[in-house]
Structures are given as C-alpha cells and as structure tokens.
Amino acid sequence: MSKSIAVSIVSLQGSLYEGQAELLVAHGAQGDVGIMPGHAALLTQLLPGPVRVHQDGTQETFYVSGGVMEVQPHRVTILADNAVRAADLDEAAAELAKKRAQEALAEQRDEFNASKALEHLAHAAAELRTLQQHKNRAGRG
C-alpha cells in the first residue's frame, strides 16, 4: 500500500492545492473525517471549516466554505465554492463578520433574516476555528 494519497482542492477561483498527503482531515456533515491512502470510496458533503493536509511531518491547513469531497483509494478531490489557505485568512475580518452576524441574529425580524444571519455566523465561526487550528500548529512547529 502506498504511503500517500493524491489530493486536489479546487474552488470556483481555480485549483488551490495539488499534492500528496499521508492523512487528510476535513469537516464533513457527520463530523470530522480522516482519509488515509487506501481509504474506501466515499462521496460526502463538507461543512464550512478546516481541511488539514498532513505530509512528511508537516501540516497545511485550508478553509473551505463547504462543498463535496470525493475519495478514491489513491485520490481525494475537494470541490468547494470558496477555499483559501488558512495563512491567508483575515482574522480581523472574520471577527467583524461574526460580530455583525450575532447582532443581526439578535435583531431578527423574520425567519429569512435569522436564517441568513445563522449562515453568516457559521461561516465566520468556521474561519476562526480554521485560523485557531493553523495558529496552534504553527506555534508547535
């Protein structure tokens, strides 16, 4: 069995990552899912959150806004509306978006606005969680 699996992370803006991984961890609809070489075929929905690619003792972290992940025994493909390297996320903007979403939620006047506020809050919280994981990993390495 191979020691690594090919990984592609693609967004509407284009290809963000092409490389190999010994382990990939993504935030799926049923919780975090870890993928290693030889994993059974899988197609799953991804929720907003981090995708961590582990290779040769290093980890690279990405934020995806949600999407789908297709797993084949020798390849993982992630298709997301939006994907960005964690190092490129703007923490201040994510904090501001979270604050605005919380304020909008507190001032909800109808179900539609509450739903949109919750969606914005989920994305901002996922960006902040991704940043935190990236910072924690960078502090150890």
Describe the structure.
The chain has 141 residues and is α+β, with helices and mostly antiparallel strands. The protein folds into two domains: 5-86, ATP Synthase, domain 1; 87-140. 33% of the residues lie in helices and 44% in strands. The protein has two helices and nine strands; from the N terminus they run E-E-E-E-E-E-E-E-E-H-H. Strands 1, 2, 3, 4, 5, 6, 7, 8 and 9 form a nine-stranded mixed sheet that branches. The protein is globular.
Outline of this structure?
It contains two helices and nine strands; from the N terminus they run βββββββββαα.
Uncertain segments: none
- Second CATH tier, the architecture of the largest domain: Sandwich
CATH fold title of the largest domain: ATP Synthase, domain 1
How many structural domains in the coordinates?
2
Percentage of β-strand residues: 35-45%
Shape annotation = globular
